[in-house]
Amino acid sequence: MDAFIRYMTDQIEAGKAEIARLENDGCQDDADFAKVRTNIYEVCNTVTDALIRRPGAGTEAIRVQFERFHTTWGAALDSAREHNDTRNIVIGEIKLQALEDVTAHFAEAVK
């Protein structure tokens, strides 16, 4: 689990550096999308930390929460597609891509 936490921390730090670079380059839209991606890593890291510390919760509770995120964010993406809301489609896709990366690394960590 330590490797997973370290990976998440690295992704958050890299995301923050990318945001700063994009903002300095005047690429605000790209910086905003990088903020979304970085935020997903931060949320998942916070959830992981909280559930690891909760007595009796453990890795299964983390997996369940990640599945809830996928369901909720997938529904929001479907809604954005139904309304042809391009910005929220991109945001939804970024969220799910970041979550897929998180869940893949989490699965490796709990093998």
Biggest sheet, in brief? Answer: none
Mean pLDDT: 96
The poorly predicted ranges are: none
- The tally of helices reads 4
Gap between N and C termini: 10 Å
Please tell me the total number of domains. 1
Strand content: under 5%
Write the element-wise H/E pattern from the N-terminal end onward: HHHH
Rg on CA atoms, Å: 15 Å
Shape: flat
According to DSSP, the number of beta strands is 0
Structure classification:
mainly alpha
Q: State the helical fraction.
A: over 70%
Describe this structure in words.
It is a single chain. Helix 1 packs antiparallel against helix 2 and helix 2 packs antiparallel against helix 3. With about 110 residues, the protein is mainly α. The chain contains 4 helices and no strands. It has one domain. The longest helix has 26 residues. The mean pLDDT is about 95. It is flat and about 45 Å long.
Features of the shown structure:
4 helices, single chain, mainly alpha, 111 residues
Summarize the structure.
The chain is mainly α.
Write the layout of secondary structure elements.
Elements: H1 2-24, H2 28-53, H3 58-82, H4 86-109
Helix pairs in contact: 1-2, 1-4, 2-3, 2-4, 3-4
